[in-house]
Amino acid sequence: MLPRRRNSLHSVKRPRLGERTMLACIGCKQKKLKCDGQSPRCQNCSRNGRDVALDHLVESDKDPQTAEAHQHNASQDDGQGGASIDVEDPADQLSADVALLCLSAAGKEPHYFGPSSAVSFSRIVSAAMKLPRKVGGSQNSVLMAENAAFSSARLFPISFPSPALGSTLSQAYFNNLHPQYPFLHRPTFEFWEDSCMKADASGNLYVAGDIALFFVYATASLALGPAHYDTAESYYCMALEHQPAVLELDSIESIQSLLSCAVYSIRSPAGGSLWRISGVAIRYCVELGYHRSVNRYRKQSNPLVAEMSKRCFWVAYDIDRVASFILGRPVGIPDDSIDAEMPLDIDDANINTLGFLQDPRTSNSEPPTKMTGAIHIIKLRRLWSKIGNSIYPTITNSSVGQDVAQKPLIDKLAQELEEWHANIPVPPDVSDLDPLSVFASREWFRLAYDHSILILYRYWITHVPPPGEEHGVEEALEICFHRARDLCLLYRRLFQSQSIQFTWGSLHILFLGGLTYLYCIWKSPRLRQSARKMEIINTCMACNTALVIIAERWSNAGAYRDIFELLSERTISLVCGDEGKAPEGSHTSIPTFNQGMVNPEQAPLEDWIVGLGDSGFPMDSEWLVQELLQGMRNTQPSEQGYDVEQPPSMNLQ
């Protein structure tokens, strides 16, 4: 329960949205002085004879993706936008935008990318498709626009929802999001909600409530669509206002608070860093012993607490694994430190503090529950951990080539994925409901399988095969080609539904699926020759159409739509020539360009790619892709089989 408030919950403070100097020197920060951000020394340091470095600030008031991109740009005058920036050796634009997409998919992030992240793969796509790199010169920094719905959101005083609206919001959450992240107990939530409704009716709302209640309302408002975004952020601010007090409880409520914040962040660019939130949630779980066996270490817990502790831990594990893989970072807790049992396959209504009202589901022949899908997701994330630990090299791995040569290991993991796919549960019938999320659409597991196959083979297909394994790589390219195609076609069909809302994660999966499809075509002459031209055109258009639909509802996706449109046109020209031009009326024409963006019909390809936007690729991760680029840079299409390259060299600069 929330602590009592001094003031009513009916008003929310508006956060400061004004401009602020993006750079501050260490001296001014230590002495708490206002810094003008001048380089190499500010006025305060000049007067006092200090010579100190500038320390980059990430402005939490601003859009997180925009702030991240600013950190690796040169200093600029305070209050002057669109300054000209000299860049000695920027990463190619595709990799820069994929880096930004990785950050977006995982929330507001620092900027270290590991080998499992999409940044490495995007560099290889650039090399395989002969995309040029712009070196030197002065250019405008065309950053992605801040999310319009949130940067301009009007935080207005908001009252507790009416019983009808509250019911709509809670049902939207528990029907669409709770089955994927079941860390709340619905009967308990309904008790909280009823208490708040009664307290609000009596004018004493401050005596009741719980932080999860307002997070649920906030996340459900996001799921209902853009018309509810203002309300969503207001509820979110109401929840955050009380979160510190709940975290101090060091209890299961603290973990539920963090996971509620994480689920909101998954669906909103205004949320916090999934990497940090899931990491903190994991550490709370470890501190409370939730990563250990309930049967061995917490036998005295009542059935409800024991079961919810397992759910909280495994949901935190799920989110942690996704964020870690997107960013290529170490996981929050290694698998060999975990012996917690999996959650029981039982509906919320059938569990309370006294025990279970019916036996948990134990056989695939039994009807699924609302927990069945979430348990199967956890099994997939554990497979992801195996893939990450086995396929993608660590910093201390002395022989990357040995990892690439382990095809029997890849085959074993592929078999485990096939077994997981064969046991996908039949979801509960929700035909009478309009799904508000991809998970609720009954197609989530198919997309997850396709994406997992791409994760498994991506490292294999982008590295030089050991002698005698060229045919195995060609087979892997064909597998990725078909899985990426199916992923693009399915996303187009899903996103044509007006009710399904998007996340940065779904954009990340779709965009990387499309890039993988193009990469396979460029890399494999056999695929170029055997695939039907109309199938290639249709798949490229499917991915582009899905990106167009996302961009129409979510303006920040426009850059990825534009990039994929250009790359797909280049690929279609490679395969089909002039006859591969898309029919008139299809959405593959060059998009409308914003001010400062170069028209590709009037400038070389290089200039247009640079003009798509400079997202400030993090230079700290340069070493992660250097080895991949060495062997790919001079790849030439070969009509006789697998493209042969020189072995990549290791350069950890």
Automatic annotation (TrEMBL):
The keyword Ligase does not apply. Residues 24-54 form the Zn(2)-C6 fungal-type domain. The chain crosses the membrane at residues 502-522. Residues 62-71 have a biased composition (Basic and acidic residues). This is Zn(2)-C6 fungal-type domain-containing protein. Its main location: nucleus. One of its GO terms (molecular function) is zinc ion binding. CDD domains: fungal_TF_MHR (cd12148), GAL4 (cd00067). Pfam families: Fungal_trans, Zn_clus. Residues 62-87 are annotated as: Disordered. InterPro entries: XnlR_reg_dom, Yeast_MetPath_Reg, Zn2-C6_fun-type_DNA-bd_sf, Zn2Cys6_DnaBD. It is found in: Nucleus. SUPFAM superfamilies: Zn2/Cys6 DNA-binding domain (SSF57701). GO terms for cellular component: nucleus. Keywords: DNA-binding, Membrane, Metal-binding, Nucleus, Transcription, Transcription regulation, Transmembrane, Transmembrane helix, Zinc. The keyword Transcription applies. Signal peptide: none annotated. GO terms for biological process: DNA-templated transcription; positive regulation of transcription by RNA polymerase II.
